[in-house]
Amino acid sequence: MIYHEVLVVGGGLAGLRAAIEAHDAGCEVAVLSRVHPVRSHSVAAQGGINAALGNHEKAQDDSPERHAFDTIKGSDYLADQDAVEILTSEAPVCIYEMEHWGCPFSRTADGRIAQRPFGGAGYPRTCYAADKTGHALLHTMYEQTLKRRIRVYEEWQVVSLAVEDGRCYGVVALDLRTGALEAVGAGAVIFATGGGGRIYGNSTNNIINTGSGMAVAYMAGVPLKDMEFIQFHPTSLFGNNVLMTEGARGEGGYLRNALGERFMEKYAPQAMELAPRDITARAIQTEINEGRGFPGGYVHLDLTHLGAERIMERLPAIRDIAINFTGVDPIYEPIPIQPGQHYFMGGIDTDSTGATEVAGFYAAGECACVSVHGANRLGGNSLLETIVFGRIAGRHAAGYVKGEGGEAARSGLAKVMARVLGETEKKVLRVLEADGPEDPADLRDELRETMFRTVGLFRDEKTMTAGLEKVHELRERYPRMGLRHRGRRYNLDWARNLELEGMILVAEAIAAGALARRESRGSHFRTDARERDDESFLKHTIARLTGDGPRLEYRPVTITRWEPKARTY
Ligand SMILES: Cc1cc2nc3c(=O)[nH]c(=O)nc-3n(C[C@H](O)[C@H](O)[C@H](O)COP(=O)(O)OP(=O)(O)OC[C@H]3O[C@@H](n4cnc5c(N)ncnc54)[C@H](O)[C@@H]3O)c2cc1C
């Protein structure tokens, strides 16, 4: 059996940062990822990463405290304020570390890290590398893992988490190249498996963002938190939902409806195009629903007044994508956009050290819910979360392994791993040999269409109940599917069908949480309960998997300094 002191699952920003930290704390570390690390979704991040550096001329009195307030207000007061204070106070440290590691940030005229305005932020504090910030950060981070010679298992997919008596012992993973199932024991496991955007239709996410880590943890008994809060990005390309960064509006882009109006003045008269994402996305969809969009259902993101020079310098990739995917050159013509599913605020329930209720099992990044985003994440705060909390989780996992936790885990290791390997083997073979009539591609498409339509931007009891029933139906049809190709090597059909069950279970947790939350807060907007209800719902939703689907519990939100107020922009 393979064994590592610390095993990190996920090669995106959160995973690599956790691995570096655990390594530097003296642990033997390995990273396991279903794709080469630099193909993780972090690489696709465009607009930037937040830190109160105060480099912009309009932000000289910015501070981590102001950053914390914007984040908490943005979260519609659902974020845990102690965790947010960690996020924003650690932000400058993490950015300067990335700078010293060689990250090629864009610069101000006097050579400091450039910062641009972003939605919901009182000051321009989003650091960027043109519109390819994730690319710059992830490649810099990957260099640091290479420098440390951290072992990476590339193209291995984790299928189960080994948990017994409240303690984690490792994972069982499929080596996609050979099709062999392997037990990987570990002193501590850190999941940094990213988001689940592809459980939804119309998503801006990479096709590998299926929420698989959340599902694996959930199926092993670890609860998920605040899953009903799904972010819809205001500006994704009409027709295929490729992201058009918020940085386009940060640089001064306008949103216009089919009448040519800058309609945001009706919805957020002060912030205009730089209102938070929940408000802006709903404003766009309202314009479309009320007949002021263009035929087919889109509005315009207009950059034409910015001029060629600024677009070429600050938004070159946006221009390339718009030209390649829609034939529109943003220098001369407005870009057709519509809201698209973008981000999971919820995830594996952790505390602010990355620890879960299972000893030795940690989570960080988009798959985790610490919670710093509450009901609505501000743009630029997710990249920040991956680095800040990746680092913290790495440090705490290392501390756990070096303490008595690691020793105790090793004593029962072989027995537990043998049991979980045996159970997982049965499950993967069942999927490989499945020859029922259902086509898994249909199940996936139906799931995505259902989630976008019924647990989307606008929600109500009747539609969500129908959505949940459909998800139950898919859960029943799943065992009747058939696999077309039965080879073991690189059988991606097999790998994807294996995780489909988890996608359905996570969808169920999202829909059940949304249905039970009879209020509107941040991204969760109900047309049949339009107001925020702090009295009944200023609390986190915790979903635990049972034989009959999710069982919901609630937990108070941590308020330190900022009492909930009405949220206007
Ligand atoms: C198009 C786009 C643009 C964005 N732009 C910004 C931005 O400008 N600013 C910002 O703050 N945020 C942005 N975001 C959000 C942000 O990029 C992500 O939330 C963040 O990068 C997630 O990082 P992560 O390390 O948690 O996960 P990811 O980078 O998604 O990495 C997940 C890793 O987990 C691995 N993995 C998953 N499941 C398994 C499994 N079962 N077995 C083995 N390995 C597994 C994958 O191989 C991958 O390596 C953007 C998101 C998108 C989609």
Walk me through what this model shows.
Strands 1, 2, 6, 7, 8, 9 and 16 form a seven-stranded mixed sheet that branches. Strands 17-15-10-18-19 form a five-stranded mixed sheet. It has a four-stranded antiparallel sheet with strand order 11-14-13-12. The chain contains 16 helices and 19 strands. It is an alpha/beta fold and 569 residues long. The protein is globular, with a radius of gyration of 22 Å. Flavin-adenine dinucleotide binds at residues 9-15, 32-35, 37, 40-42, 44-49, 133-134, 157-158, 192-195, 204-205, 208-209, 212-213, 243, 343, 365-367, 379-383, 386.
What portion of residues is helical?
25-40%
Distance between the termini: 56 Å
What binds here, in terms of ligands, is: flavin-adenine dinucleotide
Number of strands: 19
Give the topology, please:
Elements (H helix, E strand, L loop, with lengths): L1 E8 L3 H12 L4 E5 L15 E2 L13 H11 L6 H20 L14 E2 L9 E2 L5 H15 L3 E4 L1 E9 L2 E9 L4 E12 L20 H8 L4 E2 L4 E8 L9 H4 L3 E3 L7 H4 L9 H13 L9 E4 L5 H7 L1 H11 L8 E10 L2 E3 L11 E3 L4 E2 L11 H22 L1 H30 L6 H15 L6 H17 L14 H25 L17 H4 L1 E8 L2 E8 L13
Helix pairs in contact: 1-4, 1-11, 2-3, 3-11, 5-15, 13-14, 13-15, 14-15
The structure holds flavin-adenine dinucleotide (FAD).
The site of flavin-adenine dinucleotide has 46 residues, from α1, β2, α4, β7 and α5.
Summarize the structure.
This protein is of the alpha/beta class and 569 residues long. The protein has 16 helices and 19 strands. The model has no long low-confidence stretch (mean pLDDT 97).
